[in-house]
Amino acid sequence: MKAAGIDLAGVVSRPTGLCLMDDTLHFASCLVYTDAETLARMEGWAPDVVAIDAPLALPRGRASLAKGSNIHLRECDRELLRMGIKFFPLTIGPMRQLTERGIRLRAALEKQGMKVIETYPGAAQDILHIPRKGKGREKLAEGLNRMGIKGVTAGLSADELDAITCAYVGILFLKGEYQALGDPEEILLILPLS
Question: Do the beta carbons of residue 29 and residue 120 sit within 8 Å?
Protein backbone atom coordinates (compact mmCIF):
# COMPACT_ATOMS: atom_id res chain seq x y z
CA MET A 1 0.00 0.00 0.00
CA LYS A 2 1.18 3.48 -0.88
CA ALA A 3 -0.35 6.82 0.06
CA ALA A 4 0.66 10.26 -1.13
CA GLY A 5 0.20 13.38 0.94
CA ILE A 6 -0.01 16.89 -0.48
CA ASP A 7 0.28 20.00 1.69
CA LEU A 8 -0.99 22.30 -1.04
CA ALA A 9 0.03 25.96 -1.17
CA GLY A 10 -2.58 28.47 -2.30
CA VAL A 11 -0.26 30.02 -4.87
CA VAL A 12 2.56 28.64 -7.04
CA SER A 13 5.10 31.09 -5.59
CA ARG A 14 4.97 29.18 -2.29
CA PRO A 15 6.16 25.58 -1.88
CA THR A 16 3.81 22.62 -1.84
CA GLY A 17 4.96 19.69 0.29
CA LEU A 18 4.67 16.19 -1.15
CA CYS A 19 5.14 12.83 0.54
CA LEU A 20 4.91 9.21 -0.54
CA MET A 21 4.54 6.69 2.30
CA ASP A 22 4.21 2.93 2.30
CA ASP A 23 2.41 0.76 4.84
CA THR A 24 5.68 0.19 6.76
CA LEU A 25 5.65 3.99 7.36
CA HIS A 26 8.80 4.65 5.34
CA PHE A 27 8.49 7.82 3.28
CA ALA A 28 10.05 10.14 0.75
CA SER A 29 9.23 13.82 0.67
CA CYS A 30 9.99 16.87 -1.45
CA LEU A 31 8.84 20.37 -2.31
CA VAL A 32 7.34 21.47 -5.63
CA TYR A 33 5.66 24.63 -6.84
CA THR A 34 3.43 24.06 -9.86
CA ASP A 35 0.44 21.80 -10.41
CA ALA A 36 2.32 20.26 -13.35
CA GLU A 37 5.15 19.23 -11.01
CA THR A 38 2.66 17.79 -8.53
CA LEU A 39 0.78 15.86 -11.20
CA ALA A 40 4.00 14.48 -12.67
CA ARG A 41 5.22 13.33 -9.26
CA MET A 42 1.89 11.67 -8.47
CA GLU A 43 1.86 9.90 -11.84
CA GLY A 44 5.39 8.61 -11.18
CA TRP A 45 4.59 7.55 -7.63
CA ALA A 46 1.27 5.89 -8.55
CA PRO A 47 -0.15 5.93 -4.99
CA ASP A 48 -3.26 4.00 -3.98
CA VAL A 49 -4.70 7.21 -2.53
CA VAL A 50 -3.79 10.90 -2.54
CA ALA A 51 -4.61 12.80 0.68
CA ILE A 52 -4.69 16.56 0.13
CA ASP A 53 -4.59 19.34 2.71
CA ALA A 54 -6.91 21.79 0.97
CA PRO A 55 -10.66 22.20 0.63
CA LEU A 56 -11.65 20.04 -2.34
CA ALA A 57 -15.33 20.98 -2.62
CA LEU A 58 -17.56 23.98 -2.03
CA PRO A 59 -20.33 24.02 0.57
CA ARG A 60 -23.68 22.71 -0.63
CA GLY A 61 -25.68 25.55 -2.15
CA ARG A 62 -22.61 27.62 -3.04
CA ALA A 63 -22.03 27.75 -6.80
CA SER A 64 -18.66 29.55 -6.71
CA LEU A 65 -16.31 31.59 -4.59
CA ALA A 66 -16.54 34.54 -6.99
CA LYS A 67 -20.16 35.34 -6.13
CA GLY A 68 -21.04 36.59 -2.66
CA SER A 69 -23.05 34.21 -0.49
CA ASN A 70 -23.97 33.64 3.12
CA ILE A 71 -22.97 29.95 2.76
CA HIS A 72 -19.46 29.50 4.17
CA LEU A 73 -19.24 26.07 5.84
CA ARG A 74 -19.52 22.49 4.69
CA GLU A 75 -20.88 19.80 6.99
CA CYS A 76 -17.33 18.54 7.67
CA ASP A 77 -16.39 22.09 8.76
CA ARG A 78 -19.32 22.17 11.17
CA GLU A 79 -18.18 18.84 12.63
CA LEU A 80 -14.67 20.26 13.16
CA LEU A 81 -16.24 23.19 15.02
CA ARG A 82 -18.19 20.79 17.23
CA MET A 83 -14.94 18.93 17.97
CA GLY A 84 -13.24 22.20 18.97
CA ILE A 85 -10.66 21.98 16.16
CA LYS A 86 -9.51 25.31 14.74
CA PHE A 87 -9.46 25.91 10.98
CA PHE A 88 -9.87 28.69 8.43
CA PRO A 89 -13.19 28.72 6.53
CA LEU A 90 -12.64 28.18 2.81
CA THR A 91 -14.39 31.42 1.83
CA ILE A 92 -12.04 33.87 3.59
CA GLY A 93 -8.99 35.63 2.15
CA PRO A 94 -6.21 33.38 0.88
CA MET A 95 -8.30 30.27 1.55
CA ARG A 96 -10.28 31.13 -1.58
CA GLN A 97 -7.19 30.64 -3.77
CA LEU A 98 -6.30 27.42 -1.95
CA THR A 99 -9.84 26.09 -2.41
CA GLU A 100 -9.89 26.91 -6.12
CA ARG A 101 -6.47 25.28 -6.60
CA GLY A 102 -7.50 22.24 -4.54
CA ILE A 103 -10.65 21.68 -6.57
CA ARG A 104 -8.68 21.93 -9.84
CA LEU A 105 -5.96 19.56 -8.60
CA ARG A 106 -8.53 17.02 -7.37
CA ALA A 107 -10.19 17.02 -10.81
CA ALA A 108 -6.84 16.57 -12.58
CA LEU A 109 -5.77 13.69 -10.30
CA GLU A 110 -9.13 11.95 -10.62
CA LYS A 111 -8.84 12.33 -14.41
CA GLN A 112 -5.56 10.37 -14.08
CA GLY A 113 -7.57 7.65 -12.31
CA MET A 114 -6.36 8.37 -8.77
CA LYS A 115 -8.41 8.11 -5.58
CA VAL A 116 -8.33 11.53 -3.86
CA ILE A 117 -9.38 12.35 -0.31
CA GLU A 118 -9.44 15.59 1.64
CA THR A 119 -7.69 15.73 4.98
CA TYR A 120 -6.47 18.39 7.38
CA PRO A 121 -3.10 17.77 9.05
CA GLY A 122 -3.75 20.21 11.90
CA ALA A 123 -6.87 18.27 12.88
CA ALA A 124 -5.07 14.94 12.43
CA GLN A 125 -2.23 16.15 14.65
CA ASP A 126 -4.73 17.30 17.30
CA ILE A 127 -6.47 13.91 17.26
CA LEU A 128 -3.13 12.06 17.41
CA HIS A 129 -1.97 14.30 20.30
CA ILE A 130 1.10 15.57 18.48
CA PRO A 131 2.03 19.26 18.21
CA ARG A 132 1.11 21.25 15.12
CA LYS A 133 3.90 22.98 13.17
CA GLY A 134 3.12 26.23 14.98
CA LYS A 135 4.70 24.69 18.09
CA GLY A 136 7.95 24.11 16.18
CA ARG A 137 9.17 21.69 13.55
CA GLU A 138 11.22 19.80 16.14
CA LYS A 139 8.17 18.97 18.25
CA LEU A 140 6.09 17.99 15.22
CA ALA A 141 8.92 15.77 13.91
CA GLU A 142 9.20 14.08 17.32
CA GLY A 143 5.45 13.49 17.37
CA LEU A 144 5.46 11.94 13.90
CA ASN A 145 8.36 9.68 14.90
CA ARG A 146 6.33 8.56 17.95
CA MET A 147 3.59 7.48 15.52
CA GLY A 148 6.12 5.04 14.03
CA ILE A 149 6.94 7.03 10.90
CA LYS A 150 10.56 6.27 10.03
CA GLY A 151 13.19 9.00 9.81
CA VAL A 152 11.30 12.24 10.34
CA THR A 153 13.67 15.09 11.21
CA ALA A 154 13.26 18.76 12.10
CA GLY A 155 15.41 19.50 9.04
CA LEU A 156 12.37 18.88 6.87
CA SER A 157 10.27 21.90 5.97
CA ALA A 158 6.95 22.55 7.70
CA ASP A 159 5.26 21.85 4.35
CA GLU A 160 6.92 18.42 4.15
CA LEU A 161 5.96 17.62 7.76
CA ASP A 162 2.32 18.40 7.01
CA ALA A 163 2.53 16.35 3.78
CA ILE A 164 3.91 13.45 5.86
CA THR A 165 0.90 13.80 8.17
CA CYS A 166 -1.42 13.76 5.13
CA ALA A 167 0.26 10.62 3.77
CA TYR A 168 -0.07 8.96 7.18
CA VAL A 169 -3.81 9.71 7.13
CA GLY A 170 -3.85 8.18 3.64
CA ILE A 171 -2.30 4.96 5.02
CA LEU A 172 -4.91 4.90 7.80
CA PHE A 173 -7.60 5.35 5.14
CA LEU A 174 -6.25 2.39 3.15
CA LYS A 175 -6.22 0.26 6.31
CA GLY A 176 -9.79 1.27 7.19
CA GLU A 177 -8.61 2.96 10.41
CA TYR A 178 -10.14 6.39 9.96
CA GLN A 179 -13.16 8.56 10.59
CA ALA A 180 -14.99 10.46 7.87
CA LEU A 181 -16.59 13.78 8.78
CA GLY A 182 -19.27 15.45 6.75
CA ASP A 183 -21.86 14.63 4.14
CA PRO A 184 -20.72 12.26 1.35
CA GLU A 185 -22.85 14.18 -1.16
CA GLU A 186 -20.77 17.29 -0.36
CA ILE A 187 -17.35 15.88 0.63
CA LEU A 188 -15.94 13.80 3.47
CA LEU A 189 -12.97 14.95 5.52
CA ILE A 190 -10.80 11.97 6.38
CA LEU A 191 -9.05 11.96 9.77
CA PRO A 192 -7.53 9.43 12.19
CA LEU A 193 -9.87 7.72 14.63
CA SER A 194 -10.36 9.68 17.85
Answer: no
Percent of the chain with pLDDT strictly greater than 90:
85
* CATH number of the domain located at residue range(s) 2-60+70-192 in this protein: 3.30.420.10
Give 85's DSSP letter.
-
> 142-167, pLDDT tens digit by residue?
999 999 999 999 899 999 999 999 99
Q: How many CB atoms lie within 10 A of CB 2?
A: 17
Angle between helices 158-175 and 137-146 (to 10 degrees): 20
Q: Residue 146, Cβ neighbours under 10 Å: how many? A: 12
d(CA 157, CA 154): 8
Largest CA distance in the chain: 46
